[in-house]
Amino acid sequence: MNVIEIRDLTYTYPGASRPTLDHLNLNVEKGDFLAIIGNNGCGKSTLCKTMNGLIPHFIAGEFQGSVLVDQQDTKTMDVGRIAGKVGYVYQDFENQIVRPTVLDDASYACMNYAMQDYLERGREALRQCGLEGREQEYIWQLSGGQTHLLALAGAVSLEPDVLILDEPIAQLDPKHADLIYGVLKNLNETWGKTIIVIEHHTEYIADYCHHVALLKDGHTEWVLPSDEALRRVEELQECNIFPPQVTIAAHQMKKEGMLAEDTVLPTTIEAGKKVFDRLLYRGEICTEWEAPGEKQKETESVVSFRKVSVSYRAVKGEAKQIFRNLNLEIKKGEKIALIGSNGAGKSTLMKLMTGLIKPSEGEILLKGKGIRDTKPEALSKMISLVYQNPEEMFIKDSIERDIAFAMEARNTENWQERTKALLEQFRLTELKDRDGRLLSGGQMRRASLAIGIALNPEILLLDEPTANLDIATRKEIMRTLNEMKDITETVLIATHDMQLVCEWAERIIVLCQGEVIADGSRNEIFGNRRVLELTGIRPPEIFDMGKVLNPGAFCYTIQEFRQQFGCGCL
Q1: Taking the complete model, does pTM exceed 0.90, yes or no?
Q2: Is 259 helix (H, G, I), strand (E, B) or coil?
Q3: How far is residue 155's CA from residue 83's CA, in Å, rounded to a whole number?
Q4: From CA 429, how far away is CA 420, in angstroms rounded?
Q5: How far apart are CA 100 and CA 123, in angstroms?
Q6: Contact predicate 126/134, CB 8 Å
């Protein structure tokens, strides 16, 4: 039985030259756990907004075709009725939190519907979403993952048959990501909910989803069982989708004759054990976790933290301590990854460096000079922060004006030519007249990075720069970072993307509860089991695959895995 039926759907945004959705057809079966995949800008979020009625009821545009929810046309239903059938958790889920306490927020939608049992519904939704016992807590006491679950609970309280989540784990550490998907699995299997996720993390698709729908050029290319879908390696990569690393590794080794022609490509580590178990290991066994590579560069410090303490005042309870007596040196020319669980202090550290937050104790030196009394705008020429939520970078009504804003305000020489060059560099020329807040997630990321480097800062800070991105955009940002060495000397990235960490960073700093608990190279960090357990961080999937096959293996990339295990079979 189909709970959602979409027939010949075509939708064009106001002012757009071509439709985002073009004669799209899709059936969603009741009880399915469906992943919707596709490159950035292919219409994934747009499609899901047609399922919950935001399009066409609240978002204008040219709408043709039909979307049926429980056999009712969304065009003839009001959004309130649709919300009782299709719950939606947005990519920017924080905007769905509207009340100060957990139970108050979880039950708010039901209260708006004048349901007499709204509190009971809120409590039940919190129980189903793993937040039981936190009813009276303030929302700012929750972690990022818990806040996401609260947004989900608000949708669950209305008891819809379908739940849609747009990039549910894009900004979460692995521990919280596992928590989110564990709750979704329970809602699907125990409570019979139909789950639809827009997802770039294919390893989670392999572990949790039943089917995959590929969107391409505004239409549904196919809908297949998850394992079958993820084995279409070349087709997925052509659409800028990154299949699980174990799948890509097996595909490459199969093509090169290292695996038998009839090998069924694995999509999980468990399946990979059977496929790779006969491969010979030829890498040197590492008995210690010291780094064979480059140590911290002996250059001048560009940022120094001297006994820095920071705390946030709280309405309930004592002030929350973020840092206490933090000491840290950032050297000129370093490429640093800042990692740790949600709430560890990564974003706070960056805001301290830009002067957006002032320490309660201690001092921060920028090139040897204290910045406590320096305004953030005075620091922006030297140090630039690209925010975790890219929409926060947009203040004008077009991308072109946003990129030009800081340069024009400072009378930067040739700012018009610089703006044009940045638009071309980040593939934004065709979008230059669009409002940044109305772009896709990947397009917003590219635009925010262009804004961040417009003034050629000496120090660039990036907060989760690859969240929500397809392969092409992710590679483009990686390439841009490498090309920026002559422009921006020092780059610090806060991220949960361990592939980015392992491929790009020369130095890794690990934060846990406001303290630096590890500082070193890949082997020093990912070879230290205590650090991994304390923080909940997880190395790339191919690293774990190598460890399963040989405990001494340190494979951070697919290429390294093939080098260490690709010498033939027993």
Answers
A1: no
A2: coil
A3: 8
A4: 8
A5: 16
A6: yes
